[in-house]
Amino acid sequence: MFAATRVASFAAKRAFSTSAANLSKVAVLGAAGGIGQPLSLLLKENPHVSHLALYDIVNAPGVAADLSHINTNSKVTGHGAENDGLKAALEDAHVVVIPAGVPRKPGMTRDDLFNTNASIVQNLAESAAKYCPKAHILIISNPVNSTVPIFAEVLKKHKVFDPKRLYGVTTLDVVRASRFVSEVKGKDPKDVKVTVVGGHSGVTIVPLLSQSGFEFTKEELDALTHRIQFGGDEVVKAKAGTGSATLSMAYAGARMANSVLEATVAGKKGIVEPTFVQSDLYKDQGIEYFSSNVELGPNGVEKIHGLGEISDYEKNLIKDCLVDLKKNIAKGESF
What is the pTM assigned to this prediction? Predict the structure, then answer.
């Protein structure tokens, strides 16, 4: 999944110290699911990972056995709910990626997933607080706008919350935006960068197309904005009841995990990714979490970027975003 140049830079970074190398255990919670399996496969390719610990309530040992045959340097272990499997998966983890939960089905919104996935995330947060309180936690489980606050509240209860180390994975929104704009403009997606801010569902997803370097007609703006906001629905409909966006989400999750590893383990500077984190950008409006471009450093979140200059069209999108986002966050915090 990684470009050749990035792979080369990976190899160069392998000179980091033994103590840093020991910190590159990565745990995937929900590893046998539709996102978890391809995500784990991509992480098995990542040279910053020395130990890939896979947890799920069923079939994680089978997935681990399969991946363990791949001839990359990381060891793979599989853990179920029995025999303190979650504890074994989490202890000494440097990064924990969480795609656990039920997928979206046709007609369901991310909010429809709330009751089931909220409980799952809350229980996993209790274990993370106990067994890996200093890990970098990447939340994929939807609805991210609510599951990140849920996770944060559990960590706060245990007095181990570090806002620099808790991330809602919104990377898929920029991946989609880059792809969709490149299709409209006939460009290579690697040359198309689109900033996406806000949250990770429907109208809370705000693409800042005015900053992409391209001109758009009103019709193109409307169509692209809607497709970026509701791209997940496109996949749910196409899969006709068999699942949601799993492969593209795994790709996006692996990209975000790699960026966190490059910043925190390999010591790479200037890594910027969009992510849903505790943020001051709209705190004065009662919104404690927001996704924007974030510069990552050795301890995680180093600098939260503002939105910069945005168009009137985008200002209206932000207004709509904030109304829903505030409700989503409150729902998570009060769970």
Answer: 0.92
